[in-house]
Structure formats: C-alpha cells, structure tokens
Amino acid sequence: MTAPGPLATQPAPVTFAKAAARAGVALDAGQLDRFARYRDLLLDHNTRVNLTAITDPAAVERRLFLDALSMVPAIDAYARLVAADVVFATTLRLVDVGSGAGFPGLPLKIARPELDVTLIEATGKKASFLTRVTAELGLDGATVIHGRAEEIAHDTAHRATYDLATARAVASLPALLELCMPLLREGGRALFPKGTDLAEELAAGRRAAPLVGARIIAADRLPDAETRLVVADKTGPTPKRYPRRAGIPAREPLGKGNAAS
Ligand code: SAH
Predict the structure, then answer these.
(1) What is the pTM of this model?
(2) Which of 63, 170, 172 is the pocket-test mutation for ligand 1 (most atoms within 8 Å of CB)?
C-alpha cells in the first residue's frame, strides 16, 4: 500500500450523531438541531465572554457534548431505579452546580428533555448566556439561577428537593459533596465526572461523605477511559450547618486527614 498523497481523501470523521449513538444515546433530528444551535451560540458568545477554552466546533462536540452525554446511561439507570419504586411517573429534577456555559446540564437536558433541569452559576455573564441559550433553544423545564450553591442550598425552595445533582470541573470531591448533597432529597444521587487520577480525592471524599449524609457507591471509568464517574447517594439528612458559607467548602474541605471536621 502506498502512502496517501496530500490530496487523498481523509477518512470521514465520525459524526457527532454517530458518536452519540455509539455512546448509547440516539439523538433525533430535533435534538441534533438543538446541539448545533447550542454549539454555534457558544462559539459566537465565546468571542466576547470567556466561556470555554475550546474554539473548534468539532472539539465542542467531542469534548463538551459527548463528555456530557457519556453520563446519560447513569441517569437512565437511576430513572429506572426510581420508576420501579413509585406508582406514578414522576419528573426527575436535576441540578447542575457551577454549570459555566452549561456543562454537563444543558447537553443532558437536550438528550433527556423529560428531566427538569436547574443550572446554578455564580458568574453573571455565564448565567446570562445560559438564560439566552435555554430561551433560544426553547427548552421547557430548564431554569437558570445566578448565585452560589452555598446560598441556594439553604433556600427551602431548593434544599432537599432534587433527585439528581451534577457538577463538572467545579471543585474537589469533598467540596462537591458539601455543595450538592444538601440540594438532594434522601434517596437522590450525585454524579460527578472526574479525571482518572483520583485516588487521593476519592479517599478524602469517602471521609467527607458521611458528614453530609452521603455515601460514595461507585467511581468507575466511563467508556471514553479518560473519565471516572463518581456516584454518591444521599443516604440520610444533611446537617443544617452545611454547606458552610461561600468559599469555605473549597477552602477548608471536609474530611481532611484527621481534622475534626
Ligand atoms: N461545569 C462547567 C464550568 C466549569 S468552571 C464545565 O464543565 O465547563 C466552574 C464554574 O463553576 C465557574 O463558572 C464558576 O463561576 C462556577 N462556580 C464555582 N463555585 C461555585 C459555587 N459555589 N456556586 C455556583 N457556581 C460556582
């Protein structure tokens, strides 16, 4: 076989739709259209507001959309678990803490429109972008809150009301548990995508979990092999003092060594 010349046709890249289907998430034409519009809005706004370091459309699909979609099977598994448990169909409520430009919350909402999704984001410009995208894509059951999880988690309208929580690239596991567990009802579940070099963080997370009414039940690699999905169940109530005030969960993480936290 001779080496291809410079004009030889490159093998067609696997399309976003195909890659999603391979990951177990079949997307219809309407969903693909929403993803395309979301991608374009993201890249357009990114020239004015710093939303993501990724500027290549294909990389948005690969590294932001598909990464988020790799969590869908875990969400489907939880939905089946809950459905088996209740008589009436319920709408699952998911909260994405520190959503930034919408990850992973918005791709999850597009892929599973039956979820009720709340995006919490502390930075005003990012929250405005999220409001804009949810409006332009006509997403019903998507709410954007500009604020900090430390405060929103003490608001009775939100505390212990969600079934699912996610957070990506926001904080270490002990801080994520402190921010997200108060938002979950008992029996709820948090899904945190993390890198693979996780041993120390996971050990700290395991020490922190019982303090906030949580138990880490899994931390398996996703099929992409570069992500481990930490699954933490809310097994009991979270004491009222958590989360501590803004900034403290990240600065003084729970479960540090033998500290008396
Ligand atoms: N989840 C997104 C954004 C990651 S950057 C992604 O994966 O691309 C982290 C984001 O979390 C920032 O936008 C920051 O403003 C937000 N954030 C950090 N701490 C927060 C808190 N306590 N409450 C709400 N938002 C927070």
Answers:
(1) 0.93
(2) 170
